[in-house]
Amino acid sequence: MPPSPRPLRERGAGRSPDGSAPPPLRVRTGMDLAEVSRVEELMDSQPELRERVFTARELAYCYRRKRAGEHLAGRWAAKEAVLKSLGTGMGAGMEWTDIEVVNDRAGRPRVRLYGEVERVARSLGMHYIDLSLSHSAGLAVAHAVMVCQPAAPAPTTYTTEGDERHEA
Question: Which of 66, 84, 91, 126 has the smallest C-beta neighbourhood within 10 Å, fewest atoms?
Answer without folding.
Answer: 66
